[in-house]
Amino acid sequence: MRAATRSGALPRKSRPLALEFVVPDPSLIVMVGAAGSGKSTFAERHFEASEILSSDRFRAVVSGDETDQSATRGAFSLLHRELDRRLAAGSLTVVDATNVQRSARRALLVRAHATKTPAIAIILDLQPATVLARNADRGRVVDATVVRRHLAQLRASLDGSEPVIEGEGFVRIVVLRDSADIDRVRISRTPR
Fold this sequence. Notes:
With about 190 residues, the protein is an alpha/beta fold. The protein is about 40% helix and about 20% strand.
């Protein structure tokens, strides 16, 4: 039990400092991580709903079902069209999709570079057991085989003496490796 201070109030429990970083506004924020890693939750916590382009939402637009993987091509066609529009208008935009494959990130970076918009990757690189447990506990469960494939693709992008993602053209890469770090993040904006 904690001792009371002279005033009778209990001392504040020490908390780890927030992980703070600044994003230019406008910019392109690319969420990267396996299904179930918490990308959507993170994006919703730190950005306005109108700033987030979610691949799941675009699947729902195309097929009426955000889990319908057969709608992925059409969903990304719409997502890329909306991304082009937002970047041309100078709007900060967050792409909420797994983006664990280099080709997926490349399609986004080409668009950002065409409009001279800085691109920032926010990578949720949690332990596989944590991601699989989170996926199993959520309302829309992705097959564990798919999640494991996402985790392997993410590892391929991050591991090695020269991680693939570092040479892709992001102006900043933020890698968050545990839930405590994710909870501590604070994002502020600066006009570009």
